[in-house]
């Protein structure tokens, strides 16, 4: 889930590299590093830390003026998150520096081969073998000594291509070599973009990583090798390309969002949910009737859907599937993207891929199994998923810098519900009056979220103080409330590091009821009708559970503002109360709400 950035220009590289790393820190923050190349034969300056970007900045001497460099922010896969294992990784002489996003499958055999050839490996990280392979394939040592010429751009490009021919797995690479004022790039099954400006060229894993002034963006294809030097050169599998890949205008570079008056980004994003939901609903609601939304998106009105997602997005997909069934009478199958079923050809299926970042590697890989039309539901309409899909439904959330999904989840639910209503209307399964009724419910959702935000925050904080010492929780619901119980439980796992069992309440008596003992906190998300959950509640309290209810009414422990008639997407507002509880408990325990351990915002490795 790492992020890489590279720079070659007519001005110092450091500011753009640090800014790009800060914008891509959502991809991983276990460690961070940078390699600066003077380009004139002097030694590469490599700085790495297990801290975050301010710690890296403190390592770099003042007055750094190198105009070429690569940087990396890491989510650890091979090797612990230490400074030694941080990128960039270097060869035996420290003259080849490599940053890498992806994972290598044949690292053990390559390590054994390199050690047998006399290379000295000093880390646990798969990326290090790439630096040594590049070193091995260079025609002469990549450093100035005894009048030996520095390697040419062609030398390094060929060495990178020969090195990657030995790899199995996925990679996006930025390579810089002592004595060559350039960065060489390549990719295979991991995104990498080139950005161009008047005075510099950059590379980044993400559009966010580019500096102000970037006017054109080009995407590398698998097998491309690109040299960012005094001139730009593109190759594909050893053959020079007459022209670079087609470019597109760069999006305006936005500054990093700030927290405003909030104590953390997660708090700000919880607070922003009603406004984000209103933006989305306003953009969709008048286009639901008569199939207008589907026509504008270019989506065929299929009668079976495959919904592909991971994590929070999968819970939003389950809500969407329920709405498709109840409103449109359309069967929808939710696929956990990391475990796709064997491919079965079906000419009448629409695949809908849910991904907040649009860079989720499991989702992108799962899509390789099918040839159906793909609709991407994402907050990043310029992402890899968006480029892969046939059409895109933009969540319009704005930036979400807290790692745990908040407004992106609620907008995915609303987008999925709107899609289901639009599809039902296009197939003639809803009357004009029915569509208008669902539009009214969608328009009311942001108001109920805003009211719940105000209503639930104080009791959520009180409950967090009361339960701060509890090591484990059970989350339950029935019917349309189950995905929200699962999402609320995930928030507690992600942020407060508590063990949580989350399941439909009816499943308790099929085994998990054995977990309940005196005082076990059970958080019950109410969905209508309430009587089924009430029966399960008695089963739990009889065995000593401490029941905590999330729902409407003055007697609820976490009160919500629910509509008079529950919409087919269920008690969406309940998730706002659960977000407040997870955040409150996390802060009481002293953990970082925005950057939980072991996680990253965008899961870019399988």
Provide an overview of this structure.
By secondary structure, the protein is of the alpha/beta class. The protein folds into 2 domains: 3-249, Aminohydrolase, N-terminal nucleophile (Ntn) domain (Glutamine Phosphoribosylpyrophosphate, subunit 1, domain 1); 265-588, Glucose-6-phosphate isomerase like protein, domain 1 (Rossmann fold, 3-Layer(aba) Sandwich), CATH 3.40.50.10490. The protein contains 15 helices and 25 strands. It has helices spanning 14-23, 53-59, 107-116, 128-137, 153-164, 265-284, 292-297, 311-328, 361-366, 384-388, 407-426, 432-467, 482-496, 531-542, 574-588; strands at 3-9, 31-37, 45-49, 68-74, 89-90, 96-101, 171-177, 183-188, 193-196, 200-204, 216-219, 224-228, 232-236, 239-240, 247-249, 304-309, 332-336, 349-355, 374-378, 391-394, 472-477, 499-504, 521-525, 546-551, 558-559. A hairpin with a 3-residue loop joins strand 9 and strand 10 (200-204). Helix 8 (311-328) packs parallel to helix 11 (407-426), helix 8 (311-328) runs antiparallel to helix 13 (482-496) and helix 11 packs antiparallel against helix 12. The chain is globular and about 80 Å long. It starts with a strand and ends in an 18-residue tail after the last helix. The model has no long low-confidence stretch (mean pLDDT 92).
Counted by DSSP, the helix tally is 15
Beta-strand residue percentage: 15-25%
Structural class: alpha/beta
Tell me the CATH architecture of the largest domain.
3-Layer(aba) Sandwich
What do we call the CATH homologous superfamily of the largest domain? Glucose-6-phosphate isomerase like protein, domain 1
What's the CATH C level of the largest domain? Answer: Alpha Beta
Q: If you consult CATH, what is the topology of the largest domain?
A: Rossmann fold
């Amino acid at each position: 889930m790492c992020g890489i950035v590279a720079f070659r220009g007519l001005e110092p590289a450091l500011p753009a590299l640090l800014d790009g790393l800060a914008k891509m820190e959502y991809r991983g923050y276990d460690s961070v590093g940078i390699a600066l190349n003077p380009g004139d034969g002097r030694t590469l300056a490599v700085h790495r830390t297990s801290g975050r970007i301010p710690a890296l900045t403190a390592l770099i001497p003042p007055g750094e003026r190198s105009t070429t460099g690569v940087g990396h922010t890491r989510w650890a896969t091979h090797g612990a998150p230490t400074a030694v294992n941080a990128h960039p990784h270097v060869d035996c002489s420290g003259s080849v520096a490599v940053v890498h996003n992806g994972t290598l499958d044949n690292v053990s055999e390559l390590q054994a081969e390199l050690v047998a050839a006399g290379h000295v490996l000093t880390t646990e990280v798969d990326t290090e073998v790439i630096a040594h392979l590049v070193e091995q394939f260079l025609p002469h040592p990549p450093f100035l000594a005894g009048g030996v010429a520095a390697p040419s751009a062609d030398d390094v490009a060929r060495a990178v291509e020969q090195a990657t021919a030995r790899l199995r797995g996925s990679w996006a690479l930025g390579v810089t070599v002592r004595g060559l004022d350039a960065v060489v790039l390549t990719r295979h099954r991991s995104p990498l973009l080139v950005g161009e400006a008047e005075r510099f060229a950059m590379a980044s894993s993400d559009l966010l990583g580019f500096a102000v002034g970037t006017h054109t963006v080009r995407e590398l294809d698998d097998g491309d090798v690109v040299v960012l030097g005094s001139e730009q050169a593109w190759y594909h599998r050893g053959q020079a390309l007459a022209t670079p890949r087609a470019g597109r205008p760069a999006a305006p570079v936005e500054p990093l969002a700030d927290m405003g008056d909030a104590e953390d980004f997660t708090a700000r994003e919880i607070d922003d949910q009603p406004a984000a939901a209103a933006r989305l609903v306003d953009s969709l609601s008048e286009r639901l009737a008569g199939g207008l939304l589907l026509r504008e998106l270019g989506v065929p009105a299929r009668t079976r859907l495959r919904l592909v997602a991971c994590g929070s997005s999968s819970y939003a997909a389950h809500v969407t599937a329920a709405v498709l069934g109840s409103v449109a009478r359309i069967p929808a199958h939710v696929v956990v993207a990391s475990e796709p079923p064997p491919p079965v050809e079906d000419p009448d299926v629409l695949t809908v891929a849910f991904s907040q970042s649009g860079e989720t590697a499991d989702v992108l890989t799962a899509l390789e199994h099918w040839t159906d039309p793909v609709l991407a539901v994402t907050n990043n309409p310029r992402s890899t998923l968006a480029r892969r899909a046939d059409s895109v439904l933009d969540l319009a959330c704005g930036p979400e810098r807290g790692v745990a999904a908040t407004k992106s989840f609620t907008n995915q639910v609303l987008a999925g519900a709107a899609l289901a209503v639009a599809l039902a209307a296009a197939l003639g399964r809803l009357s004009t009056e029915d569509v208008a009724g669902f539009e009214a419910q969608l328009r009311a959702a942001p108001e109920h979220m805003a009211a719940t935000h105000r209503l639930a925050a104080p009791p959520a904080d009180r409950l967090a103080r009361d339960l701060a010492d509890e090591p484990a929780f059970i989350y339950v619901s029935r019917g349309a409330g189950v995905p929200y119980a699962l999402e609320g439980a995930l928030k507690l796992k992600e942020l407060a590091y508590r063990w949580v069992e989350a399941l439909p309440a009816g499943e308790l008596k099929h085994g998990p009821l054995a977990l309940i003992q005196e005082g076990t906190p059970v958080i019950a998300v109410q969905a209508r009708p309430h009587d089924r959950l009430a029966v399960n509640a008695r089963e739990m309290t009889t065995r000593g559970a401490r029941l905590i209810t999330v729902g409407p009414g003055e007697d609820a422990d976490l009160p919500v503002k629910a509509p008079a008639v529950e919409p087919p997407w269920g008690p969406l507002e309940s998730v706002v109360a659960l977000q407040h509880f997870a955040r409150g408990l996390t802060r009481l325990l002293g953990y970082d709400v925005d950057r939980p351990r072991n996680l990253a915002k965008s899961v870019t490795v399988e």
